[in-house]
Amino acid sequence: MFKNVWVYGVASGWPESLDVLETALQRMAFVPAIASQDKSVGWIAPRGKSSGEAGFEPLAESVNGHWMLRFMAETRQVPASVVQRRVDDMAAAIETTTGRKPGKKERRDLKEEAVAALLPQAFPRLQSTWVWLDPSTRRMVLDTTSASRADDIITALVKLLDGFAVEPIATATSPAVAMAAWLTEQAAPAGFDIGKECELKSADETQAVVRYARHPLLTEEVQAHIATGKQPTRLALDWDGRVSFVLTDNLQLKKVTFADSVLEQSKAQGQRADDFDGSVLMLTAEIGPLITDLIDALDGLAQPGGQPPASDTARRVAAGSTSPAAAATASPTGVASAATATTATTAFKQPAASPAPGGTRLSAIAERYLASAAPDEADGDAPF
C-alpha cells in the first residue's frame, strides 16, 4: 500500500470525527477531466468501486482507529516539442499570408491556441496517493515524496477543513547529520541496521556526488568521503528486520519494503496482502512504531522556537551542568524519548536553530559526529 512515507504534524483543524471528514471529502469527490482540461484532482473510495451501499462510495475509511484516504490526480500533458512544432507551423502560415513574422506576444497567443487544440489528443495520466491520518498522534502520512503532489493534497484538505494546517515533522538532529554520524561511527542506532545503498553530496562549488548501490557502507572509504565534507543525502536502513527503506536528508522514507516474515505473520493472522483491512492493519502496526523509533534515533522532535528536546539529558546540557559529550555517555542510546521530547502538536515546528556559543544546543549525535570529524591539533587542517 505505501512505498513512500512523508510524515506531517497536524497543527490545527483536525476533523472532529470520521463523519465530519467524510462530509468534507464528498464536496471534492474526484471527477474525470474533460478533454479541454489539463488537470483534475479529488478524492476516491479507498476500497475501490462498489464498496458502499446503495451507490454511496465512502471516501474516508477507518480501520482499527486509523483513517485512510485516497487522492486521485488526472493530468494531460502535450510534449513541448509537439507544441513548438505546431506554433512554428502556425507562425509560418501567418508569415506566408501576411508577409510579416509574428512577434513575441502573438507567438504566446499561438502557443496557448496550440495547447488548447492538442490537449484533447493527449492521453490522460492517473495517479493515486494514499493518505493516512492517525488520530492518536495527530499526524498525517503521505505515500509520496513528490512536493507537488503533497501540495495538491494539503491544498485540498485546507480548502475542505476549517483551520487545517500542517508542517513536515522536524527532529532535533537533522537526518543528514545523524546519517553522517552513523556512517562515521560505523554503527546504526538501536533497532536499526545500515543497508547497502547511500548517496553522498559535497556542499562546495564542485557539487560532487558519490553513490553506492548494493555495496557495503561500513568502510574506511565512506568515512573518508564524509571526512572531506560530503554529506549523506540518502541511506538505506533496516528496522528490526521487519521493514527496509531509504532515509533521505529531508526525513522522507523511500523504497519502503516489508520483510517476508512480516507478510507471513500477517497471512497467519488471516490478513491478505491484497485485502484492504489487512493491508492497513499491517501498515499501521509496522510503520507507526518505525516512525516513533526513527524520531527517537534523531534525538526526538524539535521543540518550538528551535529548542533542544526536553529530555533530562538535554536539560542538563542546556543548563551547562554537563557537556554534550558527557551527556551522550550518560545516555547509552544518545537520543531523547519522543514522548518526553514534545507533544504531537509541535511535530510541525522548524528544525533547531544554530547552536549557541559553547555548543550547549548540540544534540548528542551532532556532538559525537563533530568530535569524530575534528582534525588533530597538530596538523590544523579542518576537513570542512
List keywords for this structure.
384 residues, alpha+beta, TATA-Binding Protein, 12-stranded antiparallel β-sheet, 12 strands, 35% helix, disordered C terminus
Question: Could you give a short description of this structure?
Answer:
By secondary structure, the chain is α+β, with helices and mostly antiparallel strands. It has three domains: 5-76 and 123-168, TATA-Binding Protein (2-Layer Sandwich); 83-120, no CATH class; 175-373, no CATH class.
Structural account:
By secondary structure, this protein is α+β, with helices and mostly antiparallel strands. It folds into three domains: 118 residues, 2-Layer Sandwich (TATA-Binding Protein); 38 residues, no CATH class; 199 residues, no CATH class. The protein is built from twelve helices and twelve strands. Strands 1, 2, 3, 4, 5, 6, 7, 8, 9, 10, 11 and 12 form a twelve-stranded antiparallel beta sheet that branches. α10 crosses α12. The chain is globular and about 75 Å long. It starts with a strand and ends in an 11-residue tail after the last helix. 34% of the residues are buried. The C terminus is likely disordered.
What secondary-structure arrangement, pairings included, does this model have?
Elements lengths: L4 E8 L5 H9 L12 E6 L16 E3 L2 E10 L4 H19 L5 H15 L6 E10 L4 E4 L4 H14 L4 E4 L6 H11 L6 E11 L6 E5 L6 H8 L2 E10 L3 E6 L3 E7 L1 H9 L7 H22 L14 H8 L4 H7 L7 H4 L22 H10 L11
Antiparallel strand pairs: 1-6, 1-7, 1-12, 2-4, 3-4, 4-5, 5-6, 8-9, 8-10, 10-11, 11-12
